[in-house]
């Protein structure tokens, strides 16, 4: 861990964009930094960035600059695939000219063509696998516009579970965000990954979805990202994703 030809820990943290070197030194002194599952408080500690697993406040710091982690706002009408043999617009078209080779990018959390919103793209296969696996229960949040006025007890009904043709499904959280004549905007959070699950659940309780946007995956939020735009995940977002799936 402390090879003479290693790199000073505070320099590694600074180069990874975690904090300035001075702030990184304080983090180390305060016991907030772990190297290979051991808290390090010595400022002179040297590490091998290619081998060492470094965490700040329990969240892993990504040091491998060959890894790509992107947030994309998939526009409505676009397919959630890297290529389409029928020539339909797909997310591969968005990244083809903007990312250095998209051949090994995995898409996390595919959306149907008529749904807009947040998807993640990464060439970290293990992270992608865990984010998609239901056992890690990474929550996803959607804004749905439904027909009609939603009654007070609908959230409780959805939290208790709705019977669908492929088994029961339940939401983790539900809230009414806004009401306009004839329509209601609701926020739905769940960790289910079944196809068209939000649309099917709301249709099952009598409120067909007119528009649907995914706004969050775990702690990564769409924010004001425009449809069709791509951005690189921050170290903080990335660390929290790794933490959520035990990496």
Automatic annotation (TrEMBL):
What reaction gets catalysed by this protein? Answer: a uridine in RNA = a pseudouridine in RNA
Q: CDD domains attached here?
A: PseudoU_synth_RsuA_like, S4
Per UniProt, what is one Pfam family of this protein?
A: PseudoU_synth_2
Known EC number = 5.4.99.-
Q: Name one GO cellular component term.
A: cytosol
Q: Which PROSITE patterns match?
A: PSI_RSU, S4
User: Which is a GO BP term held by this UniProt record?
Assistant: enzyme-directed rRNA pseudouridine synthesis
Question: Which PANTHER family does the record cross-reference, listed alphabetically?
Answer: PSEUDOURIDINE SYNTHASE FAMILY PROTEIN-RELATED (PTHR47683), RNA-BINDING S4 DOMAIN-CONTAINING PROTEIN (PTHR47683:SF2)
Family per record: Belongs to the pseudouridine synthase RsuA family.
Recorded protein name is Pseudouridine synthase
What is the source species? Mycolicibacterium celeriflavum
User: What is this protein's gene name?
Assistant: rluB
């Amino acid at each position: 861990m402390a090879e003479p030809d290693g790199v000073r820990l505070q320099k590694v943290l600074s180069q990874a964009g975690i904090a300035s070197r001075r702030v990184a030194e304080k983090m180390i002194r305060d016991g907030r930094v772990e190297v290979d599952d051991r808290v390090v408080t010595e400022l002179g500690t040297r590490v091998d960035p290619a081998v060492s697993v470094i965490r700040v406040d329990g969240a892993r710091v990504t040091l491998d600059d060959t890894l790509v982690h992107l947030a994309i706002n998939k526009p409505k009408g676009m397919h959630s695939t890297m290529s389409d043999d029928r020539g339909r617009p797909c997310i591969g078209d968005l990244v083809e000219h903007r990312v250095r080779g998209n051949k090994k990018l995995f898409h996390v959390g595919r959306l149907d063509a008529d749904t807009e919103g947040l998807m993640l793209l990464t060439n970290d296969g293990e992270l992608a696998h865990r984010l998609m696996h239901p056992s890690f229960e990474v929550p996803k949040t959607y804004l749905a516009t439904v027909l009609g006025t939603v009654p007070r007890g609908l959230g409780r009904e959805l939290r208790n579970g709705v019977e669908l043709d492929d088994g029961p499904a339940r939401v983790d959280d539900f809230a009414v965000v806004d009401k306009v004549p004839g329509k209601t905007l609701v926020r739905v959070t769940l960790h289910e990954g079944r196809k068209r699950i939000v649309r099917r659940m709301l249709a099952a309780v009598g409120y067909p979805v007119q528009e649907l946007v995914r706004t969050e995956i775990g702690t990564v939020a769409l924010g004001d990202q425009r449809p069709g735009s791509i951005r690189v995940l921050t170290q903080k977002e990335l660390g929290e994703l790794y933490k959520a799936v035990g990496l």
